[in-house]
Design a protein that fits this description.
This protein is mainly α. The protein has one domain. 92% of the residues lie in helices and 0% in strands. It is built from 3 helices and no strands.
Length: 83
């Protein structure tokens, strides 16, 4: 059987190895960490621009619909007065 001290040393060694393992990976390749951030920012900018364009198109469509409805209302009393 493994003594308590040996078991504790083994557990400590494993936890240290697990804790340190990400550090060499981060130190080896620091450039990709900033690249996704730039890509995300560009994607969010494109998305925001697209949303603004959609909103403007929707607003124009709504204004056009409203003007058609108004002109229809005006045309209706004029045709009633003619009869």
């Amino acid at each position: 059987m493994i003594s308590r001290v040996a078991h504790l040393r083994l557990a400590t060694l494993i936890s240290v190895v697990i804790g340190i393992s990400p550090i060499p990976a981060i130190a080896a390749d620091p450039a990709p960490a900033s690249a996704p951030a730039a890509a995300t920012e560009a994607a969010s900018t494109d998305k925001a621009t697209e949303q603004k364009a959609k909103k403007a198109a929707k607003k124009d469509k709504k204004a056009e619909k409203k003007s058609k409805k108004k002109s229809k209302k005006k045309a209706k009393p004029a045709s009633d007065a003619a009869t």
